[in-house]
Automatic annotation (TrEMBL):
NCBIfam families: oadA (TIGR01108), PRK09282.1 (NF006761). It comes from the Bacteria. It comes from Pseudomonas xionganensis. InterPro entries: Aldolase_TIM (IPR013785), Biotin_lipoyl (IPR000089), Carboxylase_cons_dom (IPR003379), OadA (IPR005776), PCB-like (IPR055268), PYR_CT (IPR000891), Single_hybrid_motif (IPR011053). Pfam families: Biotin_lipoyl, HMGL-like, PYC_OADA. Residues 7-267 form the Pyruvate carboxyltransferase domain. Residues 528-603 form the Lipoyl-binding domain. The keyword Secreted does not apply. The gene is oadA. This is Oxaloacetate decarboxylase subunit alpha. SUPFAM superfamilies: Aldolase, post-HMGL domain-like, Single hybrid motif. The lineage of its organism: Bacteria, Pseudomonadati, Pseudomonadota, Gammaproteobacteria, Pseudomonadales.
């Protein structure tokens, strides 16, 4: 056992804990009232920003993420604020040019971030360099991250080498980021011992409790010399989230590792969030509890609930085990990337396509193609060359750092968003999420920002009202004094005798899915006719049309891409099932589509 020392703590309640438990939906209004108490605790830091919070703010909550950060900073003057940053991907899903990375980090620092935990989904350190430089230039704490996974190529030696490479780039500390709950207590001990022996930096342990091992891993890591643990206040802890703050504080109390944090104060905070969690019950996935399958399928907590929601939307939740079985196979084909945003989406979505299409790699997402070209960085292991050939043909595979191929973008982004951006922060919001970012800025300019509705908290032991004859498909719902117009816009695929309804709230399509307790029917659902002829083009997943590539009269080959659709944040080509002439196009860019709808008709 290494020399005992006081252990410092980051509470993830304002970022990862609610990302892992309630799909990142916690609103600023539920954070601010408890900030005075959080600020008294003496945490080393509070994780408050980054990860999926920025996306959720803009997409669902209609909060300006920068304003959230400034308000948290003002409310937490005595505590470091921490964010999670995806290296060259920042908070988006692609690689940004270096000038965007520098601008983003500088603005995050100015608006309140003190500690930047920087990771790359491939553990390709080339993708961390510019972000680390930018954090140091802003005078802030740069934490280099080992995205922890297991595979034949992920050895302790490889992690130590990565840590050394990050040390040479100037990081202040190292995080072991066990996003999926894959770490085991003794592997944690071995890894931390090796890091402490060979790299002279504080070691932080971020271990999700998905497999029920999180607290044990942290304890063994502490015994091996780790300096710091990430926890979640108990009412948002455990399962796909983190070990409970109060539990870890109690476990270490009175030992040489004592955190010094006040348990009574923590329990008051825990009770506060216990009430908050109930407000967000509609976003709780059934996969938030301990699930040991992660030790095989490697699916991180956030991704687990996302996959479940997405499959549910398609009426295919019953196939989740097939998807879990497919994920490790896709991962091996791609050279064992760790599963963390964006690789978790890339691998997860391809696995869903492979299962739902009934044939592996019948559809290959554009992101998998880019991955196989080296455009996310170097794969940790060898990729399946046959798949690479099938996916990209003779297109070139790049060997340089992906961002080396990108031209500066800030000037172009500023020009594109124009007067909608009131400041540089707005330009960066648009840079992160071009479509929803622009929409957010437009709605803000029009004074029309409406957050998604929260469903009322069910009474204890109560039953939701059953639908009957004459159930309307349009109605107005009042929630906390705000009125929302709700339309049932479609009926999803029927499975297990349940119907899945697609809603729009105030004209916005929503991903909320209801399963009625009895069998009422709300119209015929989808307005498009259903595919039956061999030349009918349809998708296997609900999604949005990103691009229409053909027009009436075009001659197409079998297998030619005619549409690009987006589902589960991934784009893929929709191909012509037969060769022939385009007879009709029933969709336009931006349309929401359901499986089986005829989108394009081709006459052979
Ligand atoms: Mn995490």
């Amino acid at each position: 056992m290494s020399k005992p020392k006081k252990i410092t703590v980051t509470d993830t309640i304002l970022r990862d804990a609610h990302q892992s438990i309630i799909a990142t939906r916690m609103r600023l209004d539920d954070m601010l009232p408890i900030c005075p108490k959080l600020d008294q605790v003496g945490y080393w830091s509070l994780e408050v920003w980054g990860g999926a919070t920025f996306d959720a703010c803009v997409r669902f909550l209609k909060e300006d993420p920068w304003e959230r950060l400034r308000k948290l900073k003002a409310a937490l003057p005595n505590t470091r604020l921490q964010m999670l940053l995806r290296g060259q991907n920042l908070l988006g899903y692609r690689h940004y040019s270096d000038d965007v990375v520098r601008a983003f980090v500088a603005k995050a620092a100015v608006n309140g971030i003190d500690v930047f935990r920087i990771f790359d989904a491939m553990n390709d350190v080339r993708n961390l360099r510019v972000a680390i430089e930018a954090v140091k230039a802003a005078g802030k704490h740069a934490q280099g991250t080992l995205a922890y996974t297991t595979s034949p190529v992920h050895t302790v030696k490889a992690y130590v080498e990565q840590a050394r490479a990050m040390q040479a780039m100037g990081i202040d500390s190292i995080a072991i980021k066990d996003m999926a709950g894959l770490l085991t207590p003794y592997s944690a001990f071995e890894l931390v011992q090796a890091l402490k022996a060979e790299v002279d930096l504080p070691v932080f342990v971020h271990s999700h409790d998905t497999a029920g091992l999180g607290a044990m891993c942290q304890l063994k890591a502490i015994e091996a010399g780790a300096d710091h643990i990430d926890t979640a206040i108990s009412s948002f802890a455990w399962g796909t989230s983190h070990p409970g703050t109060e539990s870890m504080v109690a476990a270490l109390r009175g030992t040489p590792f004592d955190t010094g944090l006040d348990l009574a104060l923590l329990q008051e905070i825990g009770l506060y969030f216990h009430a908050v969690r109930k407000k967000y019950h509609q976003f709780e996935s059934e996969f938030t509890a301990v699930d040991t399958r992660v030790q095989i399928n490697q699916v991180p907590g956030g991704m687990m609930s996302n996959l479940a929601n997405q499959l549910k939307e398609q009426g295919a939740l019953n196939r989740i085990n097939e998807v879990f079985a497919e994920i490790p196979r896709v991962r091996e084909d791609l050279g064992f990337p760790p599963l963390v945003t964006p690789t978790s989406q890339i691998v997860g979505t391809q696995a869903v396509f492979n299962v739902l299409a009934g044939e592996r790699y019948k559809t290959i997402t554009n992101e998998v193609k880019l991955y196989l070209q080296g455009r996310y960085g170097l794969a940790p292991g060898k990729v399946n060359e046959q798949l690479r050939k099938q996916a990209i043909g003779s297109e070139e595979v790049i060997e340089v750092r992906p961002a080396d191929l990108l031209k500066s973008e800030m000037a172009k982004l500023r020009e594109e968003i124009g007067a909608l951006a009131a400041c540089e922060e707005d330009v960066l919001t648009y840079a992160m999420f071009p479509d929803i970012g622009r929409k957010f800025l437009e709605e803000r300019a029009a004074g029309n920002l409406k957050p998604e509705a929260l469903l009322p908290i069910p009474e204890a032991g109560g039953v939701a009202p059953a639908g009957g004859e004459g159930v309307p498909t349009e109605f107005v719902v009042d929630v906390h004094g705000e009125s929302y117009r709700v339309d049932i816009t479609g009926v999803g695929v029927k499975s297990d005798g349940k119907r899945h309804f697609y809603l729009s709230i105030d004209g916005m399509p929503e991903e909320v899915v209801f399963e009625p307790l009895n069998d009422f029917v709300a119209g015929s659902g989808s307005k498009r006719k259903q595919a039956s002829a061999p030349g009918d083009v349809s998708t296997s997943m609900p999604g949005n049309i990103v691009e229409v590539l053909v027009k009436v009269g075009d001659v197409v080959k079998a297998g030619q891409a005619v549409l690009i659709s987006e589902a589960m944040k991934m784009e893929s080509e929709v191909q012509a099932p037969i060769a022939g002439t385009v007879k009709a196009v029933h969709v336009a860019k931006g349309d929401r589509v359901n499986p089986g709808d005829v989108l394009v008709e081709i006459e052979g």
